[in-house]
Design a protein that fits this description.
By secondary structure, this protein is an all-alpha fold. It has two helices and no strands. Helix 1 crosses helix 2.
Length: 76
């Protein structure tokens, strides 16, 4: 984005996450968003699954992302 400045804020201190690492993490976020869009499309035919506890929702998202990574790495 030539000529535009953005501010990325985090609640972590400089020792935990440097400014460079913060920018890298933000750029990697776009890859995660693309993965979510990919496995929600008609091509993968992921159906809706309803969970009622936060723990199960987190586990489900983790498994979906893990399986997406596995499939993507083998396709490459």
């Amino acid at each position: 984005m030539d000529g535009l400045y953005i501010i990325i804020r985090t609640s972590l201190d400089e020792k935990t996450l440097s400014a460079t690492d913060t920018v890298k993490a933000d750029k990697n976020l776009s890859q995660v968003k693309q993965a979510f869009r990919s496995y929600k499309t008609v091509y993968l035919k992921v159906r809706l699954i309803y969970h009622y506890t936060a723990e199960r929702v987190k586990a489900h998202i983790f498994l979906c992302m893990l399986s997406y990574y596995y499939v993507e790495s083998h396709m490459r």
